[in-house]
Amino acid sequence: MKKLFSIFLFVMLFVNINKNTAFAQEPQNFLGSVGNRSIEMLLTFGDMNDKNIMELSGTYFYADNQRSTLNLTGALNYDTGKVAMTEKNSQGKTTGFFNGTYDQNNPEGIKITGIWTSVDKKRNLKFSIVKPH
Question: 41 CB contacts (<8 Å, ≥6 apart)?
Fold first, then answer.
């Protein structure tokens, strides 16, 4: 029984450490699309708070316009998998929003899919990004 309890504690400790250090705050490169346009996104996953919310920050650009980089800030709810990010241009003006779902068990790699919405809410486009294994 002691051995079983020790194994249980080890597994719980490993899961907690793994959850908090999965990205080790190093930028992660994602490839994908917004609508029918290819993008490259660089995301940094920050520390997780006591409510299992992890801060996100990063940048992305459209493959057909690499000179125009957009900035991202947001959060990942690790319990629900929900992702919300705000997009801003180089002048700091909000230009859009990403709302989606994080899937670390996707066979392609870590995947985030959802809807990008323009700041005026007139345009909604599907987005999908993946960080291959």
Answer: 29, 30, 31, 32, 58, 59, 60, 72, 129
**pLDDT for the residue numbered 16:** 44
pLDDT of residue 6: 42
Which residue reads 């959060």 in tokens?
75
| Cα 32 from Cα 101, distance rounded (Å) | 14
Q: Is residue 42 within 8 Å of 57, Cβ to Cβ?
A: no
Question: Amino acid identity of 26?
Answer: E
CATH class of 25-132: mainly beta
Q: Answer whether 77's CB lies under 8 Å from 62's CB.
A: no
Which residues of the chain have a pLDDT value below 70? Answer: 1-24
> For strand 65-77 and strand 124-132, is the pairing parallel, antiparallel, or unpaired?
unpaired
> How many other CB atoms sit within 10 Å of the CB of residue 39?
21
Distance CA 74, CA 127 (A): 16
Is-contact 72 93, C-beta < 8 A? no
